[in-house]
């Protein structure tokens, strides 16, 4: 790596560290203000509160890093221009493209790092956040255990649910087994059903196409098949939604496997497929915004300073976020193909950034 590249990257990473630290600090302060009443009311331990905010940091990093990369890219070139360093670089034979190449390369590397963080660190951290908040702070008993392809849930009436697939949007289940226990934890009944559906008007579960096993005290087992049946159960759909793993708690590979599972059960996977593509597109927002911000900052560096650089960052960031979340909403609604919904904003800004880059005077 040349001396010039090291110098440019040193300025870029220094500014990014300052911006990233400041942004995460602001987010944590906002989160603290929102949560402080519950922490005090529930008399949460200091260590639990501290761990809650520490485990929040990976998600905040992924959320904020595109804007901080954009801001650091713009400010690096604005400050170079203000100190006439770009003029000196060009006088020594370095073109504008040679100056901005290290910034774009660093932005792409950060995008790859962000994807790795989102894949391996954020899901586990988000699970810990949910566990600390629900179990340690709000004192909710952890009755549910979830994997992407199975839910285990123990209800308050000594019934254990084993659910192969649960659709939280339609309150429907596939491949359900109930283990019903007595007060002394003796299994007295097992219920297997292919389909289970919640009936909101009657506030009960309808079990379809199943088999009942009745275990008597003398050791006999009686089996009864049924096409449709109801059982006296206290559990409601909200109980299983709390125990289910959310997309934000899944890695890309887990969400992909989950989509395959629910698709095999005949459920609509549109929303989840959009989220799957978004997990791929979101990390590369860093590179896309840098590609757009760099030409803008070069064009405007002669007419303004740091304030203009911040204004450029805000304007680009707002326009991008509007397009990105508009695409995601249209994708969830089925108005756009999932890949287009998640990558549309990136492709538009890549084309715009590439055009601006080719028209920067070298």
Structural commentary:
The chain has about 350 residues and is of the alpha+beta class. It folds into two domains: about 5-130 and about 265-360, no CATH class; about 150-245, no CATH class. Helices cover about 60% and strands about 15% of the residues. It has a seven-stranded antiparallel β-sheet, with helices on one face.
Report the structural category.
Answer: alpha+beta
Order of helices and strands: HHHHHEEEEEEEHHHHHH
What composes the largest sheet? Answer: 7 strands, antiparallel
- What's the domain count? 2
Q: Kindly, what is the distance between the CA atoms of the first and last residues, rounded to a whole number of angstroms?
A: 21 Å
Spatial arrangement of strands, main beta sheet: 1-2-3-4-5-6-7
Uncertain runs: none
Q: Based on the structure, what is the oligomeric state of the protein chains? A: single chain
Rg result = 27 Å
The shape, in one word, is elongated
Number of helices: 11
Q: What is the residue-averaged pLDDT?
A: 85
Strand content: 15-25%
Helix content: 55-70%
| Strand element count | 7
Give the tags.
61% helix; single chain; 2 domains; 7 strands; 362 residues; alpha+beta; 11 helices
Topology (elements, then pairings):
Blueprint: H1 3-41, H2 46-82, H3 85-91, H4 96-120, H5 122-137, E1 144-147, E2 150-154, E3 159-167, E4 172-181, E5 187-199, E6 204-215, E7 221-229, H6 237-243, H7 252-264, H8 270-281, H9 285-300, H10 306-332, H11 338-358
Antiparallel strand pairs: 1-2, 2-3, 3-4, 4-5, 5-6, 6-7
């Amino acid at each position: 790596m040349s001396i010039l590249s090291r110098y440019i990257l040193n300025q870029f990473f220094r500014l990014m560290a300052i911006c990233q630290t400041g942004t995460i600090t602001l987010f944590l302060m906002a989160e603290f203000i929102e949560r402080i009443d519950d922490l005090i009311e529930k008399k949460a331990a200091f260590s639990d509160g501290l761990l809650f905010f520490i485990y929040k940091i990976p998600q905040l990093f992924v959320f904020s890093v595109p804007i901080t990369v954009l801001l650091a890219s713009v400010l690096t070139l604005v400050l170079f221009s203000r100190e006439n360093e770009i003029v000196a670089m060009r006088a020594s034979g370095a073109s504008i493209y040679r100056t901005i190449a290290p910034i774009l390369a660093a932005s792409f590397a950060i995008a790859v790092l962000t994807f790795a963080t989102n894949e391996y660190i954020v899901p586990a951290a988000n699970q810990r956040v949910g566990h600390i908040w629900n179990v340690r702070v709000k004192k909710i008993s952890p009755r549910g255990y979830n994997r992407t392809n199975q839910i285990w849930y123990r209800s308050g009436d000594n019934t254990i649910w084993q659910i192969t697939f649960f659709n939280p949007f339609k309150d429907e289940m596939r491949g359900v087994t109930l283990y019903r226990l007595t007060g002394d934890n003796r299994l007295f009944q097992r219920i297997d059903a292919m389909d289970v559906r919640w009936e909101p008007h009657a506030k009960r579960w309808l079990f379809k196409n199943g088999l009942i096993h009745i275990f008597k005290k003398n050791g006999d087992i009686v089996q009864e098949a049924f096409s449709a049946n109801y059982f006296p159960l206290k559990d409601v759909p909200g109980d299983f939604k709390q125990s289910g793993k959310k997309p934000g708690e899944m890695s890309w590979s887990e969400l992909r496997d989950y989509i395959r599972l629910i698709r095999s059960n005949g459920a609509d996977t549109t929303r989840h497929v959009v989220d799957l593509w978004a997990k791929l597109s979101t990390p590369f927002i860093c590179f896309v915004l840098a590609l757009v911000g760099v030409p803008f900052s070069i064009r405007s560096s002669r007419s303004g300073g740091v304030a203009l650089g911040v204004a450029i960052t805000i304007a680009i960031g707002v326009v991008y976020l509007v397009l990105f979340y508009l695409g995601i909403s249209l994708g969830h609604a089925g108005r756009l193909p999932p890949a287009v919904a998640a990558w549309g904003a990136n492709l538009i800004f890549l084309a715009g950034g590439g055009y601006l880059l080719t028209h920067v005077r070298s």
